[in-house]
Write the structure tokens for this entry.
Amino acid sequence: MEKTNTVKKKAPSRGGARKGAGRPKGSTQQITIEGLLESVKLKSNGNDYQSILVEDFLDARNRNDTHLVMKYHNLILNKVMNSLAKVEVTDSKDQIEMKQQAFAQALAKFTGIKEE
């Protein structure tokens, strides 16, 4: 029987730096949100992005473009409304005192300090 030489291949490494990775030296700045919005404003005769979105939304509604109107509604509901949503929690004085006592008891058990 002949014995064959088998070469065991090294598994590809994972993570770490790679040769040639990253932006090349001398490359321009990365694209930023502020830069994009300023570019839109400059190229649209001073209209900001929000105004353009509103105009486009109203235009789609006036043309009865239901599909595009739904996309605008999704955009508004998913992105804009999340930043506007607020949750207000109001507790009575009794509830606050109970929470303070429970916290003090838990802290005392955790640290080993006796409550006073």
Notes: The two ends are 85 Å apart (CA to CA). The chain is about 55% helix and 0% strand.
